[in-house]
């Protein structure tokens, strides 16, 4: 290829790079605007997510690096870190790949240009990997000798970002398999845990894709709601991820300051109520969409009642998990939490604009009265 041809190709690539970067910024701005449409609820949820992320950035990375004495806990923290990263990148996937114009781009540029820009924007978007890189640069030689698994962890962070873009099903399978690994009652070295992560994620890429929702007969209200959540799993995934973040944060804080258990219990209850009762917003939209259909089938009353069942079931599972795996809650706060969750469901249905305000006032009141 002549020098003129090389210069022309470089100029074309730069133009394409500028286009993708502008499209990336526009889509991120649109995503942020969509989130802002939730108003105060968005600020509450984002604030709670940021608190969990900041805590994981400063405490989680330290636990992952220095996990020789508690390898299983370090592996669990690494898994949670990878889960939260995957949730964040899944939300940004459309902006990273410029999915709306993807077919058009394939007609004007080479396929490897698309993937190269995907990787560049992926690295730009992955704040979790950037945070790990900053910590890695600060480690000295002796610390690296004690934490060779951190190199594999960073490799996993990058690889899971690529899986999120091109093999999302493999990512989901891998997260499930690695969750089982970190929960097994075994005691192995941190390096072995991370090698196991790599092997399980590699094997998950070989599994065939299948969809249970296509095989599920919708002949009852229970299967109707089950099919909805299987097809729109992200409404549950991001809530579960943030709840796990809260659980890990509370566990860490209880180990550091057991004398503040009452305060931590109220905070845990507040977030459990927030993330489970807010599911009603999604269920309410589905109810409004299909209420005429169920009314025509003389099931309007049952359908109206059924829209509250997913949030209630989600709350019971979350509360039971907290009591089993994190800490106990006093009976008074436990009873108040059940009533609080019911109140938030009512507000979400009747007065959605006041949902976040009621949650914050109730949280403040319980902190003032019970601590």
Automatic annotation (TrEMBL):
Alphabetical list of InterPro entries matching this protein: DUF6136 (IPR045614)
Source domain of life: Bacteria
Membrane-spanning residues: 38-58, 78-96, 117-137, 149-166, 171-191, 236-254, 260-281, 302-325, 331-348, 353-370
Matching Pfam families: DUF6136
Keywords noted in UniProt: Membrane, Transmembrane, Transmembrane helix
The protein, known as: DUF6136 family protein
Classification lineage: Bacteria, Pseudomonadati, Pseudomonadota, Gammaproteobacteria, Alteromonadales
């Amino acid at each position: 290829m002549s020098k003129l041809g090389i210069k022309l190709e470089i100029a074309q690539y730069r133009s394409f790079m500028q286009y993708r970067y502008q499209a990336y910024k526009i889509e991120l701005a649109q995503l942020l605007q969509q989130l802002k449409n939730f108003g105060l609820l968005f600020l509450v949820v984002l604030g709670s997510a940021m608190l969990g992320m900041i805590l994981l950035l400063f405490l989680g990375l330290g636990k992952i690096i220095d996990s020789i004495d508690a390898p299983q806990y370090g592996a669990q923290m690494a898994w949670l870190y990878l889960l939260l990263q995957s949730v964040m990148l899944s939300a940004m996937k459309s902006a990273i790949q410029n999915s709306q114009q993807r077919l058009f781009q394939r007609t004007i540029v080479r396929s490897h240009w698309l993937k190269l820009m995907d990787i560049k924007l992926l690295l730009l978007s992955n704040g979790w990997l950037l945070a790990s890189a900053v910590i890695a640069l600060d480690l000295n030689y002796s610390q690296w000798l004690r934490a060779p698994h951190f190199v594999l962890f960073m490799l996993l962070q990058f690889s899971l970002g690529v899986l999120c873009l091109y093999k999302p099903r493999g990512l989901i399978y891998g997260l499930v398999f690695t969750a089982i690994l970190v929960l097994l009652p075994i005691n192995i070295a941190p390096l072995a845990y991370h090698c196991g992560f790599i092997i399980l994620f590699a094997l998950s890429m070989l599994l065939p894709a299948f969809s249970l929702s296509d095989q599920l007969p919708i002949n009852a209200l229970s299967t109707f709601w089950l099919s909805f959540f299987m097809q729109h799993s992200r409404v549950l995934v991001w809530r579960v991820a943030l709840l796990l973040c809260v659980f890990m944060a509370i566990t860490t804080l209880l180990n550091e300051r057991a004398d503040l258990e009452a305060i931590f219990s109220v905070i845990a209850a507040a977030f459990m109520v927030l993330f489970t009762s807010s599911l009603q917003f999604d269920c309410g939209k589905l109810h409004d969409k299909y209420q005429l259909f169920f009314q025509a089938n003389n099931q309007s009353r049952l359908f109206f009642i059924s829209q509250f069942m997913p949030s209630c079931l989600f709350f019971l599972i979350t509360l039971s998990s907290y009591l089993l795996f994190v800490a106990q809650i006093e009976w008074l706060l436990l009873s108040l939490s059940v009533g609080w969750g019911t109140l938030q469901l009512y507000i979400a249905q009747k007065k959605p604009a006041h949902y976040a305000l009621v949650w914050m006032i109730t949280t403040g009141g319980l902190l003032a009265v019970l601590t």
